[in-house]
Amino acid sequence: MADSPRDCAMILAQAATLVRQLVRSRVHALPPQVRHVAGLHFGWWTDDGTVLDAPAVSKGGRPALALLACRAVGADPHVAWATAVAVELVHNASLLHDDVIDQDPLCRGRPALWAAKGVPAAILTGDALFFAAVQTLAAAPDAGRTVPVLLAAVQALIEGEYLDILMESDTDVSEDRAATVAAGKTGALLACACELGAIAGGATEERAQLLHGFGQRLGIAYQCVDDVLGIWGEEPVTGKPALSDLRSRKVTMPVAAAMAGNTPQAQSLRALYSGNGPLGEEDYTRARDWIEQSGAREATLRRARRHTADALHLVDQAQPEPSAAAELAALADLITHRDH
């Protein structure tokens, strides 16, 4: 009899448990000083070396996708451990660099590494984690097939992040262009996790590509929701400063949608983004209200739901193992309806 599908909390908790010690082992192989600041980022200890009882916990989403993609093609998910570790390391590397770029003082509700130890420490630690991810896959079976996939994903992620920077203060950004950025900066790594998990499970190229497509579309849906939370999310829940995206004039999906029309709200928003100097609290509070009034919040959530539906269609085409398919669908639903 087939295993009953797990709920999302169990899927994520089990993935995080499997990967946590493996990530820690890989980080412990780094040079001492880099290892120390990496441990600060992960919340394993304080700056003076005191071990923390309750370190920062990854939600386990990317490793979970890798393990589930492996199960979906009929293999034991434990054969995808290197994939799960690699994508978690890349994700944390990108978090370190993102916080520097965005000057976000908080990460997962704690001081970001750049704010605690300086920009050079955060950049170099992120670099070290990127290379540790490559080393993890290079030492595993199928390295000739998996390492190029990871490298391509990292390049796509970097391009997406750079395009995101170029869009700042740009008042002529279409929703489709914002979605293209999301496909790079978020979709690339989720697609990579799914494809690598499928490869680890012995999938054919066709099935691996279908699961890659699932991850990419799910990543766009994830970014849509993330963009909404970046404006309307609550700081105690998201772990980031309230209205952080508007403070930095980021042209996220809801902002692009709101600017697309010729309404008074769109005109006011474009004028605000065209200005110079930092935005005051009244500025970004008014911007949030204009975006809400334009209907862009709900439009962005509808886009998230469309991409999720497309993602699930691709899973079906891959003819997955039923229990794994149900769990992938559950994670997709969680991503689209999450509040943090």
Would you give an account of this structure?
The longest helix is centred in the middle third of the chain and has 28 residues, at 205-232. It contains 16 helices and two strands. It is an all-alpha fold and 340 residues long. Helix 7 packs antiparallel against helix 8. The protein has a two-stranded antiparallel ribbon with strand order 1-2.
Structural class: mainly alpha
Series of H and E elements: HHHHEEHHHHHHHHHHHH
* Contiguous runs where pLDDT drops below 50 for at least 5 residues: none
Kindly report the spatial arrangement of strands forming the biggest sheet.
1-2
What's the alpha carbon Rg, rounded to whole Å?
20 Å
Q: What proportion of the residues is helical, as a percent range?
A: over 70%
Summed over residues and divided by their number, the pLDDT gives a mean of 91
Describe the global form.
globular
Strand percentage lies at under 5%
Amino- and carboxy-terminal Cα gap: 36 Å
- Count every beta strand, where a strand is a DSSP E run of 2 or more residues: 2
Helical element count? 16
